[in-house]
Amino acid sequence: MNFKEFPQLTTSRLCLRKLEESDWECVSFLRSDKTVNHFVQRPNADTKEKAIQFIENINLKFKSNQILYWCISLENEQRMIGSICLWNFSEDRKTAEIGYDLDPDFQNNGIMDESMKVVLSFGFSHLGLKKVEAFTHSKNDNSIKLLRRNKFRLKEGRIDKDNLEIIIFEVDRPAMVQG
C-alpha cells in the first residue's frame, strides 16, 4: 500500500476523498457529538485545534501506510458528512479494520452502506485484503444491521479486552475477487 496520490473513490451519489484541514468543523462535530459517539469511546476533537491536529495525524498516518481515511461528501459537494476508514492493518497486510461515522442528519439514507461497499471493493481488489474486521458496540443496532447487509458475520468467542461490550464482525474477500 504505497500511493503516490490519495485514492479517491466515487459512487453514483458520493465522493470519498482525502480529509482536508478545511473539514475541521465536521471532524470536530463527528468526534464530539453525543449522538454520534453514543456507542464509541474515543478522544474528542471539541476545538478547532484538536480537530486540525486529528486531521494532520490522519494524513501523516496515510503517508506512512497506516490508514486510508476517506471523507464522505455528496457528489458535487465539498461538505464533509461522514468518514470511513481502513486501518489497523495486520503485519502481513491481509487484514484490516473498518471504521465509520456519519452526521445523524444523513443517516438512514443508505449513505454508509454505499460507502462501505465501495471501500470493501477497493480493499479486496486493490489492496489485496483477505479479510476486513469491524468492532462495534453490542447495542449499536444500526451498525450491526449495516455490517450484516455487507455480509459481515459475528466472530463468536472473540472479544475486545479493552471493552467487553464490543462485538467483532468480519467479512472475507469474495471468491470472485480472489483471482
Fold and architecture overview:
By secondary structure, this protein is an alpha+beta fold. The protein has a single domain (9-172), classed as Gcn5-related N-acetyltransferase (GNAT) (Aminopeptidase, 3-Layer(aba) Sandwich), CATH 3.40.630. It contains five helices and eight strands, in the order E-E-H-H-E-E-E-H-E-H-E-E-H. Strands 1-2-3-4-5-6-8-7 form an eight-stranded mixed sheet, sandwiched between helices. Helix 1 (24-32) crosses helix 2. The chain starts with 8 loop residues before the first strand and ends with a helix.
Which labels suit this protein?
30% helix, Aminopeptidase, eight-stranded mixed beta sheet, alpha+beta, globular, 179 residues
Full CATH superfamily name: Gcn5-related N-acetyltransferase (GNAT)
Please tell me the overall pLDDT.
93
The CATH topology turns out to be Aminopeptidase
Strand sequence of the main sheet, in spatial order? 1-2-3-4-5-6-8-7
Q: Would you list the SSEs in sequence order as H and E?
A: EEHHEEEHEHEEH
Profile the largest sheet: 8 strands, mixed
In percent, how helical is the residue content?
25-40%
The structural class is alpha+beta
The number of E-state strands comes to: 8
Distance between the termini: 19 Å
Integer count of domains: 1
- Could you name the ranges where pLDDT drops below 50 across 5 or more consecutive residues? none
Choose one word for the global shape.
globular
Radius of gyration: 16 Å
Classify the beta-strand content into a percent band.
Answer: 25-35%
Q: Which CATH class? A: Alpha Beta
The number of helical runs is 5
CATH architecture grouping: 3-Layer(aba) Sandwich
Protein name: N-acetyltransferase
Domain N-acetyltransferase: 1-179
InterPro entries: Acyl_CoA_acyltransferase, GNAT_dom, N-acetyltransferase
